[in-house]
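Quarterly update from the structural biology core.
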Amino acid sequence: ILGKHSISVFKMIQKEAASNTAEVVFVTHKVKEAHMNAALSELSAMDQTQTIHGTIRVGLDEYHPKGMFGV
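Predicted structure, tokenized:
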């Protein structure tokens, strides 16, 4: 779904949660807001998705040209 909406993943973190669920956090490269909103809408509609708690928009590219972790 992310690739379909031109979203490139920089890093993904998955944390185990209760009741056979998982918390997943994606850090992406720069992306157009319309593309992100379309992907979030599609992800929300999936049976496997319980909830999307939110998104945080940050401008890492301008301040960290090699990425947040120096890669």
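The beta strands are 9-16, 22-28.
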